[in-house]
Amino acid sequence: MTKTAMAFAAAMLLAAGNAQAQEVDGVPRVFLDCRSQDCDQTYYRTEIDWVSWVRDQADADVYIILTSQQTGGGGREYLLDLEGRGTNTDFALGARYRTVATDTERERLDGIALTLGLALAQFATQAGFRDIIALQGTRSDEEGTGDAGGGLVSAEQVDDPWNLWTFRINANGNYEGQSSREEWRLSTGLNVDRVTPTWKQSYSGNFNRRSQTIEFDNRPAFEDDRHDWGVNWRVAYSLAEHFSLGVSGNVGRNTQNNQDIWGQFNPAAEYSFFPYEEATRRSLTAFYEIGPVYRHYFERTLFDETAELRAEQALTLSFSQRQPWGTAGVNLRGSTYLHDLGTNNVQLDGDLSFRIVRGLDLNVGASYERVRDQIYLRGGNLTDEERLLRLQQELTEYRVELDFGLTYRFGSPFNNVVNNRM
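and the corresponding structure tokens:
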């Protein structure tokens, strides 16, 4: 849809709404809950200055959740869900804006602001806020073919020489040095993706090298030079609205895990209890995979193996929800080797951001892993350097992490002023 058409559509909505809405004084009070990339709220407040932006959702006439998900071409789809508050609880609206991978940050922000502004115009009309909006259609080129959606098309609509395949190559280097130590890192990567409504294919490869030297006054210098690499792939087919089949695999080298070469190939299935289209707001999935795993080791393992081929299975349950009260996510994953069900791993992790009372938010993240599957660990003891620098995995029965914090906001409920100085 062109910007001209979008502005015209909004004008029609305003005209229709003005005939029915009861006029109210003031301007809409808006609370934006942004849980996505490009959450530049200062920019949105500057561009949409005809509403009152409030710092607490309890003061809002309309509550907005902004989320996003990646598209097959490397861009993003932004989803805006508007919910009326107070006397406007009957208002609900969803809007979408899509970008392409080559869009600049300014282009993305402009598109989001335009979509957000049009959605707020519709709310203002229905809620009875009059004489606060003036819309003007614009053409982004001489033919008026500018598209706020960034020119997103399907393979059937254009002659695409790439057939929807996208590629991304990256290379990064880093050097740090001082009198007694130095370290440098090099990493490269390649990602290849193709996404259609039926198929989703993702292939990636990476190479990493790291070298570090630490000098001591009373002992020889410590030197470590290592490189790792990996190739990963996943192919998924949409079998039904809630069900997908696929395969995934990996092959690579992992020095920290004592694996000179390792590889696995897993047929997989996923069931989504909610429609996939609702994934940005709520998601509950069960993902099962099973397949062979081969490892060839640098050194003999704790079980005196130099190489082994095993079969492994894993089941992952994932839940996430984004609501006006906050966000929550829980993942439970269990895996086991088929030759010995006692050789297994169970991991539970979750995060919660919860609005306790007005202005007070609780943020908690926790993870617990019961480890019984470290068959790849090398035999013998680790050196002090290997333990301190975490150059090798250590034998452990569990891993645990906990993060928590409180945030309290208070003061003026209105935050409309934007000052970019200093």
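(Above: one complete record from the training split.) The longest helix spans residues 105-127.
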